[in-house]
Amino acid sequence: MVYTHGGLSVDGFKLMSMNKGLTHLSARFGLFVCLGWISWSLCFAQSTALSPYAQGDWKKIMQARGAAPLVVHFWGVTCGPCLTEMSQWGQWVSKGTAPVIFVQVDDVSAEITANLAKKMKIDKAKNYFVRSKFDEFLRFEIDAKWSGEIPYTVTIDKSGLQKAYSGNTNFKTLQSWVKNNS
Question: What is the pTM of this model?
Answer without folding.
Answer: 0.72
